[in-house]
Amino acid sequence: MSQPDKRTLLAEGLAAGDDDSALHARLAAAGVSAAAAKYEVDRLAKDPMAAMLRRQAARMAKQGWLLANQERLAREGEGGFALDTLAAPDAQHFYRHYYEANRPAKLTGIVDHWPALARWSLDHFAAAAGDAVVEAQVERERDPDYELAKDDHRRLVRFAELIDWLRKDEASNDIYLTAYNSGTNAAALASLWEDMAPIALLDDTRTRDGFFWLGPKGTLTPWHHDLTNNLLVQVIGRKRVRMAPPWAFARMRNSRHCFSDWGNEALPAGYGDSAVPPVLETVIGPGEAIFLPVGWWHQIEALDLSASMSFTSFRRPNVHVEDYASWGEL
CB of 320 within 8 A of CB of 246? Predict the structure, then answer.
């Protein structure tokens, strides 16, 4: 029978905030004798690494308390933990009460002037840019970590071929033209900007600064958070959007970078519990949009053939990546 790794058990306990008695219990539960457990725990008093782990655990507990206060305030506020719908919102109101407050919102009436709402279809895409070569994410269904490994799924394809595939109207998560492909697609699909017009809420000096999304019913972007504030505008079809707040971090199973181990799981809307985060849920259709604040976790599922635009060109600074350091495992 293999002996338990006492140092690993102690490190896990210290990181979890265990006091000496809890460390003794942790070792005993793993089969360590009482004498050996006492020896190992007593040694920690002179171990500088143990002292630093204890201090770090105390700091994390303090952060947890602060986040718990944010949750209490969110639940107790006017309207409770809920998603507001704003009809053609005034920019000053939007920025003060939503953008600057890091609060999501569903928006209507902000792109009613877009010709795209009447023009966009697979036929229109084929006529406007069918001969262009575009980049898309493919073969996603064979890889459970397709979003984390999205570089491995990039492929070049004629836009007309992608459109023909979409005409089959089959539900699939296997192919998706996403914002991540925009470096290649910006020039190829530039003609589609003729079908759009400036959005009053955004920076009017960056009127052609956005990202095109196109995919079949069934595309699923797993739980993650972005490093910017985002505005997602729906043009064709519907998307279900689920969101969880930054203060639910401890329940988001964040094991790497911005990704959550909840993955594609359909977490239920509501307040959650000690293990499941609180979730807001809505569906956006043609002409509707969702404001996704920086740090808010979200999962997005296409309920129909779907074409969308996303924007980060707000009137406020939106560069939050410069001091971000959590690119690896957490």
Answer: no
